[in-house]
Design brief:
Blueprint: H1 6-17, H2 25-31, H3 33-54, H4 57-78, H5 82-96
The structure holds phosphoribosyl ATP.
Phosphoribosyl ATP is lined by residues 12, 16, 24-27, 40, 66, 69.
Length: 110
């Protein structure tokens, strides 16, 4: 299993979105603004659904990768840190009391 993380991809997206490199797809997408990037995100979401319903596992993994990448770009353009999304997910896990099953110690306290 790969050690590559969403946080590592987010760091790459941050660096590329802030660059003026004309070869960078991320830079071009970020320069296009939230409207264009959100449209791309929607297209990737639809392609992921189609892959889930009618394509093989490799195709689904590819579309899911496109979807996560474009989501990170939209979050970056909007200035919403990935950490905020992870904190939201962590909070939901804590609410259900399943932290230990997720491989994390319970947060303790009362
Ligand atoms: N993970 C990705 C990634 N996933 C998808 N894509 C790009 O997303 C685009 C989506 O494909 P489409 O066919 O829908 O889009 P398109 O027709 O090329 O583009 P549009 O004109 O429709 O916008 C492709 O150009 C892919 O290359 C990505 N581009 C970049 N990354 C990561 O970002 C890093 C930096 O990339 P650059 O910004 O290009 O240097 C890379 O090293 C990767 O780690």
């Amino acid at each position: 299993m790969s050690d590559f993380t969403l946080a590592a991809l987010d760091a790459i997206v941050a660096a590329r979105a802030g660059s003026a490199d004309p070869a960078s797809y991320t830079a071009r997408l970020a320069a296009g603004g939230v409207s264009r990037a959100s449209k791309k995100l929607g297209e990737e979401a639809v392609e992921t659904v189609i892959a889930a319903l009618s394509e093989d596992d490799k195709a689904l993994a590819g579309e899911a990768a496109d979807l996560l990448y474009h989501l990170l770009v939209v979050l970056r353009i909007r200035g919403v840190p990935l950490a905020s999304v992870m904190a939201e997910l962590e909070g939901r896990t804590a609410q259900t009391g399943l932290e230990e099953k997720a491989g994390r110690p319970a947060s303790g306290g009362a």
